Amino acid sequence: MALGGILSFSTVCIAVFLIALLVGLVFIWGAFLDKYEHDPGRVRAAMFIILCVATFAEMALCTSGITCCLAAWISIVVNVWGGMDALLRFPAAHDVESFFCLKQCFLIAVKTFAYAFGMVAFRQNVGIFLAVLLINIWGLPVLYTMALPIDPAEQVVKDDSYDVDLAVRVWQLASCSYERRQCMVSCKGWWYQSLTLASESSSLARLAICAASPEHRRALKKLGRSV
After folding, report:
1. Minimal CA–CA distance to 168: which of 81, 103, 98?
2. 194-224 per-position pLDDT tens digit
3. Which long-range contacts (CB under 8 A, 24 or more apart) does 94-100 make?
4. What is the distance between the alpha carbons of residues 86 and 93, in angstroms, rounded to a whole number?
5. Can you list the alpha helix ranges (DSSP code H) found in 119-202?
6. What are the angstrom distances between the C-alpha of 189 and each of 75, 87, 166, 209, 223?
7. What is the pLDDT of residue 194?
8. How far is the first Cα of the chain from the last one, in angstroms, to the nearest whole number?
9. DSSP 8-class letter at 187
10. Phi-psi map region of 224: left, alpha, beta (phi>0 left; psi -120 to 50 alpha)
11. Distance between CA atoms of 224 and 192, rounded to whole angstroms?
């Protein structure tokens, strides 16, 4: 009886601490959004890093024997089809009754049950379960919702073709050569833009990029920048 009371008290303390931590993260995230409110690319990049860190932590739980392999696989599917899909379509807004929102709610519920029944020793690892539940499973959608622009005019993507479910995108890439060519063009454009930004932010990076890419070296010479 005493052991049960101690476990219950410790569980409550852990839950209170995690809720306070989540509130702190929300405040920090809110400050970040206030600064980069009109820069969806930077906000998307930050959320992508957060999603990668969360996924890495969940895989570490599996390799440590805290969660079963099935929970890890379900986590990967949810993070890719749910989280990654949402980031690729950010900052597009969707109605509550849309397939996007219904899918996200379904995946969150699936991941919740996967970890509720996928902990190897639930009683000993209840604190870890609560951390994953409050921060990774329920907390990340809160951060995503906060990141959506308030102005409806900004709740759109540059191209309507981007606001497509990830599963549909994968099918289109696998079945259509035109879509594969378009994807390659988009990837090359993104890569070129990233290299350009890196060369503008660091002289050392500019030297390395110009040494590896004659195209960038010619482009910088046209702009009159030293290489």
Report:
1. 81
2. 666 666 666 666 666 666 666 666 665 655 5
3. 99/165, 100/165
4. 10
5. 126-131, 139-147, 166-175, 177-201
6. 31, 19, 20, 16, 19
7. 64
8. 74
9. H
10. left
11. 18
